[in-house]
Each structure stands twice: as structure tokens, then as C-alpha cells.
């Protein structure tokens, strides 16, 4: 089952969950649409690494890493500044704040900040020279592209860094 199929199944389970009021599920799906309007081992074998950046505070970030059995580090963007710098941070509407509270999700507590904001999911491939070789941002937090889709990009980077006449910079 692909990552997207797993995420779609999870979304369907949440929508069908009897403990989540229909109104809440419908509003969550509407919020996704509103936001839209506005192979780990294969990656490692290509000399690349995965790193997550989360606005969650340390306790919640560690919980997420453990619960999801993540095999890569999750860095903490404690004040959401990295997300803001990349244009990914957005304020949560008053209606969505109420829905989050109704579901027992206090973003102020989870993120450890006074405001109610979230980052849009984004994925970047950054070459060794610091140049962004690939960027993907999707305001629909239920969608994730397949990790294997990055493999051709990583292969291209590997070819370009090993091309004749190129050398790696050295530290003085």
C-alpha cells in the first residue's frame, strides 16, 4: 500500500469515526479544501538523509516520532520561525480553533506558543552546496507525495556532483 493510500485510509477512518461528530468531520474536510485554495532506505542508499522540522514542542515532537516509529531526526521549530521564513506558517481560523478545542487538541499547548498556527506540509531536497534542488508544498495536510518520487531527483544530484571537472570544496 502506498503512503498516499495509507493516508487516504486514515482520513476515511477519521471521517467514519462515530466519536467524531459529523459536523466536525465535515468542517475538517472543508478546512482542507480552504487551505488548498489559498522508501527511506532508497533515499539513504543515494547518499541523502531525511530530516523533519516540527513546530510541536519537544515533548509532543518526541511522542510523534515514537508513535510513528520514525527512523529519522525531527528538529524542533520552537517558535515557528522556520515555517514562517519558508512561507509555510498560517494562522488557524476562529472556527478551526473551536474545532481543535472540541477534539481536545490545544495547539498552544502542543506547539508551546501563544498563537494558533500550523505549518503547511512541505518537502525540500537541498543539494550539498545548499541550493534547493526540489521544493513541494501542499496546503492539503492529508496529502503526501510518494517518497520514491524523489529518487530521480536524488539520482540527478548524484550525477551532477560526480561529473568530471567538479570537485568538492574543502575547508581551509
Compact summary:
By secondary structure, the protein is α+β, with helices and mostly antiparallel strands. It has 8 helices and 6 strands; from the N terminus they run H-H-H-E-H-E-H-E-H-H-E-E-E-H.
The low-confidence parts are: 163-172
Order of helices and strands: HHHEHEHEHHEEEH
Name the CATH class: Alpha Beta
Individual helix count: 8
Assign an overall shape. Answer: globular
Straight-line N-to-C gap? 48 Å
> What is the rounded Rg?
19 Å
Instruction: Please state how the strands of the largest beta sheet are arranged side by side.
Output: 1-2
Helicity, as a percent range: 40-55%
Q: Largest beta sheet, briefly?
A: 2 strands, parallel
Second rung of CATH, namely the architecture: 3-Layer(aba) Sandwich
For this structure, the CATH topology is Glutaredoxin
Strand content: 5-15%
> Mean pLDDT score, rounded?
83
Structural class, please?
alpha+beta
**Domain count:** 1
Q: How many distinct beta strands?
A: 6
Question: Topology of this protein?
Answer:
Layout: H1 3-16, H2 22-37, H3 40-45, E1 52-54, H4 58-67, E2 74-76, H5 81-85, E3 89-91, H6 94-102, H7 107-111, E4 117-119, E5 122-126, E6 132-137, H8 151-161
Parallel strand pairs: 1-2
Antiparallel strand pairs: 3-4, 5-6
Amino acid at each position: 500500500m502506498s503512503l498516499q493510500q495509507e493516508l487516504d485510509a486514515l482520513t476515511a477512518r477519521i471521517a467514519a469515526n462515530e466519536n467524531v461528530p459529523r459536523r466536525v468531520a465535515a468542517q475538517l474536510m472543508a478546512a482542507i479544501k480552504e487551505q488548498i485554495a489559498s522508501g527511506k532506505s532508497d533515499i539513504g542508499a543515494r547518499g541523502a538523509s531525511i530530516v523533519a522540522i516540527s513546530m510541536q514542542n519537544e515533548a509532543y515532537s518526541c511522542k510523534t516520532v515514537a508513535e510513528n516509529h520514525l527512523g529519522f531526526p525531527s528538529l524542533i521549530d520552537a517558535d515557528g520561525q522556520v515555517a514562517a521564513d519558508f512561507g509555510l506558517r498560517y494562522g488557524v481560523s476562529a472556527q478551526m480553533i473551536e474545532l481543535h478545542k472540541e477534539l481536545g487538541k490545544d495547539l498552544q499547548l502542543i506547539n508551546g506558543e501563544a498563537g494558533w498556527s500550523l505549518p503547511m506540509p512541505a518537502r525540500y531536497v537541498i543539494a550539498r552546496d545548499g541550493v534547493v534542488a526540489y521544493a513541494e508544498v501542499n496546503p492539503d495536510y492529508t496529502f503526501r507525495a510518494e517518497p520514491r518520487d524523489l529518487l530521480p531527483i536524488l539520482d540527478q544530484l548524484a550525477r551532477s556532483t560526480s561529473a568530471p571537472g567538479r570537485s568538492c570544496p574543502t575547508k581551509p
